[in-house]
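Reader question, answered in our methods column.
A reader sent in the components of a multi-part assembly and asked whether the whole thing could be modeled at once rather than chain by chain. We filled in our standard form and ran it. Here is what they sent:
COMPLEX SIZE: two components
ENTRIES:
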Amino acid sequence: MFGYVFKRSLQSLVAVAGLLVLVFFLSRLTGDPAYLYLPLDSTEAQRQAFNELHGFDDPLYIQFGRYLADLLHFDFGTALSRNRPAMEVALEAFPETLKLAAIAMTLSLVLAIVVGALAATKPGGIFDRLATTISLAGASAPDFWVAIVAILFFSVSLGLLPTSGTGTPLHWIMPIGVLMLRPFGLLTQVVRGSMMGVLTSPYIKTAQAKGVRRTKIVFVHALRNALLPVITVAGDLAASLINGAVVVETIFGWPGIGKLMIDAIVRRDFALVQATVLITAIAIFFLNIVIDLVYAALDPRIRHQTA
Amino acid sequence: MRIKPVCLAGGMVLALAASLSAAGAEEITIVLPEQPANLEPCRSIRADIGRVINMNITETLTIIEPETAQVTPHLAESWEQVDDKTWRFKLREGVSFQDGAPFNAEAVVKSINRLMNPKLTCDSRSKFGDVTLTPKAVDEGTVEIVSDIPIPIMPTLMGTVQIVSPNMPFDQEVNKPVGTGPYELEAADNEHIVLVRRDDYWGEAPEVTKATYRWRSESAIRAAMVESGEADLTPAIAVQDATNPETDFAYLNSETTRMRIDAQIAPLDDIRVREALNLAIDWDGMGEALFGTDVLRASQMVVPGVLGHNPDIKPWPYDPERAKALIEEARADGVPVDTEITIIGRNGFFPNASESLEAMQALWQEIGLNVTIREMEAADWVRYLDKPFPEGRGPTLFQQQHDNNTGDAGFTVPVMYTSEGQYSTIADKDLDQVITKAMSSTGEEREKLFQEAFRVVHDEIIADVPMYHMIGYVRVGPRLDWTPDLKTNSEIRLAEIKFKQ
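And here is the structure of the entire assembly that came back:
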């Protein structure tokens, strides 16, 4: 197991390095930052002075060399638009996204497993139809629209919840609710489908014949086998949440990394783009390792293969 | 057991009430469309920064009155032009910075030098072009500013130079502005910025004691925050969110839009085609449908109130029949009116910018022109904005939005309409002369000359298709007594905000 994690980490390191090179050059393909940093009526001399000051006039390979040299000192550059070290800005925002993603993902997973499993026990029944309708609607509803309607309803009309921002526990309700929609919808569908397959398999029939209690069959014997595809999908969904819940962050004014990354790209703040990509990439690689470990814990076949 | 949900609900309501009443009687919350990128005073002509710090934390020597374009004293009490290139400003006495440093000639000199410091990226420097300023302290209360070329509007320009404490780092951009203003920065993080009133301000004490700035990019949310009482004021909400006449106010935001005509390239080099372009658009219909009923039709690129605005110029009417006739006339004379003309737009430029391009394209096609639209990213769009324009581009109509909130047409006319102008597509020797003369004169003569330049551009050359003076909307909570003006986009003076009785 240890060797496996070590191997995966090494692979991840190579991938992160490749990603950094790619982001460095791709971001510089977007054009001259002087046009975005300086006002439109700046003179050519002012733009040149700006590029010289920040080294943007050097050939790309020299800029890249400088970037690598700085990286070795853990210097991730200055976020020009913010007058602050890029990594500091990124590290401030990332935990906010992580908290939001972790809570939303855990809640959706638990809810989806319960609802999906119950729906699968009686396909075509009333509960199943209801669960399917709601989960499909959740998975397909545009989150920006749901978010705005929720704010108008809960905050403006009813005055129950604050519109946006952070602070009290009440501030978490709508962002998490909106963020859960898609993962909950998709996962419910996956759990339901996977459970329906497992519940018809012979070992379940055996358990039934032996007189094992229904809830035990569903939530202990069947669920464990049905969870593998769920973990795969949940892993993907979690990665996309860590990547920045951009819509939710934007609408609810949540100071997370998704919005920060978009702003950095729009402002051509190269150092900040690189820092935010690096943080999320590392987080996603960690997440992947965790998912692999969960796989191994759930499925003895994988455990024995890697051992 | 039944008591539990009630307790929970009660707790929630209490918690909410506590969060809502966080703003006391004289404390306000302002919600902005974006987080200020930073708080560096030498970059504060950027709206995101200026809205927070200008005239609240840092102040200027002079003030440009938005409605009349008059330059009035502020930190400077008076000024005089010593010679062509030298201005002398007499400073107000008894003023101090928030950090206790005295406001004097040395501080002004240092502020100007800091603005011009090549080691800093100061947006506000762009107003001076490539001019070199040499400020000098004559005595404690007098500053002399020498420029390498004559600047007749130095007092106007000083309205954009934020005076900062001499203790601010000279070679480094910072996020802790220190000025002479009535408020000082208390806190700034990723979620809010807080300004508090200072006790030793030199002027009249403002009513607002504390202002908290938050930011939400979604206009509907900002409007909802004011409606629900979470915020007291938000600038720049979208026209579709400005639904409540009690709280929502329209104001001219000092932006003017136009389609610049590539007047050197056929068929746009023919004046009949250029006139037809102006006549073909249903200005009232398009304005009302896309930009709101309050939008103001433009005949020139500065708003009324700016020195040099010519009130006698009549905007072109909507006359598609005459437009068609002009195109046919040009065609008969051999003008290649069927050549493909490209509209250059910019993605997400301003609300309904793309829709306006589509509407104009359809109307121009109706009068017999062959028009296509190309929308670009900002950086690509800029290549067409500035000289040298891309080679082999063909005839283009270029959408532009221009902001002149400095109160002087000198920031608009030369760059747009002289032969050498950075954005100019026309070359007219006589017009050049008028503009050059205007730039070196002051007062009434300056106004007359710029008015003449605008008349020539509109009536004789037809250099562009002026669209509208754009409108912004603010939503103001019921507690506040405040109305927006031309400067609201670039600064919100907390001192002007009063409370209703």
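What stands out: The longest strand of chain A covers residues 78-79. Chain A has two domains: 10-86, 89-298.
Send us your own complexes using the same form.
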